[in-house]
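Obj.: predict assembly geometry.
Materials: sequence records (below).
Method: joint structure prediction, all chains together.
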Amino acid sequence: MDVTREWDEAALVEALVRGEEEAFLWLVHRYWPSMKRVAGGLLRSDNVAEEVVQETFEAVFKEIARFRGESSLRTWMFRILVNRARRVGKREARSIPFSGLGRQREEPRRDAPEDEFTSRGHWSSPVHGWRMVDPQSEAISRQGVQLLAEHLEDLPERQRTIVTLRDVEGLSSKEVCKMLDISEGNQRVLLHRGRTALRRALESDETRLSDPGARA
Amino acid sequence: MTTCREVSSLITDYLDGKLGPLQWLRFQLHLLVCPSCRQHLANMRQLVDALGRIPPETEVPLRVVERLRGLAQL
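Observations (raw structure tokens):
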């Protein structure tokens, strides 16, 4: 399934309303990973999260004729997912409001390790560009993107959810706050922590990959 | 005076356009004089861009695909 194909949203919705299998399969393959990540941040059980994502797609297919385009199709689907995950979580008493979820497993509040900055607040060592950046496009290479995808799975749940919705899927801050019923401030703190953790993970990768002694 | 630590802690707010006018000005003034913070900002922009390019995996469980395919045919 070629999920790199770009659908015009109106054309995609029409194809879904007509029941075209290719459109259904494209939608599932395209959004399953992100929806699974988001559901995993709202529910404690991986199996339950997978069921909720499946039920969300079922609901999308059944209700697609009622989609009015007041938001993007993607936002509409994620809203269905979040609402469904919350209902399931309450019913099974396995989830708590997003604002409280995962508190015990969150990283320490401090954003920077002690040695990243001096006592006067300057960088301890100069900041360099990443070697993983392609010099022509000035973008992180495919290898770097793959590493980031792996590190994303290791983030604490709330950070993973926010980074997935904001940066992987490109939803706006307002959309995400409304969907998850959290404040802008709370959302930005989680986003900052998630991005910081990913930055440090990538920097560790660069150190490891460039140090022959580290390769084993 | 704005420090590098402060700039680093404000970077997400800056990229979201959420700094107040005075904070924004201090942030920009610091960038003018600090090559490390300029690079840090560039690195974070590249990170966010790269996250947007994470390709969807293709490993949707087969039973899910079959079940949803069945729905599509109704």
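Conclusions so far: Residues 167 and 191 of chain A are 9 Å apart (CA to CA).
To do: check interface contacts against the pulldown list.
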